[in-house]
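[job 4471] stage=fold_predict status=RUNNING
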Amino acid sequence: MSLLWIPILILLFSLAYASASGAPWVPTFKRDIERIRRLLDLKDGEKFVELGCGDGRVVLALSSPLLQKERDRVRSKIIAVGVELSIIQWIAAQIRRIITRSWNTRFVLGNAFAYDLRDADAVYLFLLPETYEKIRPKLEAELKPGARLVSFVWPIPDWNPTKVDEMPGAAKLYLYVR
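[job 4471] inference complete, writing structure tokens
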């Protein structure tokens, strides 16, 4: 009976560590995912990365476009990667990936600060305000010219957004183009 608690404690520690390291898990609303999609304007062949992807809903939504009229799944040529530090959220993302058959997506169990962004065309962040200050030097060093980044709720310190998407009753989205 006491051995059963070990995996539970490991999972809970992972969730707490991930929350303390960058942000607690707060899901992105569907309406905001569509706003993010419009701002990033992903093209075939581009690589999209979400740092702190939680259960993978944004990664999966952006990598699996649906035709609005026919509601048929279209084969996406977008390469999508979600990086998550919490084992619980990472497992949830993997399950969602399998259920949705999104084979062009990948979920990495790891720290956002360690993931290499040099080949990313588009990045999405929804972190705590103090984490933006900490991750800014990494973004400045690794994002290639022309890379697009959307920040949810809080702006990146000392960066000038290319566009601020405001919608009544919703959080601001900040688009940056390097």
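[job 4471] summary: The mean pLDDT is 85.
[job 4471] exit 0
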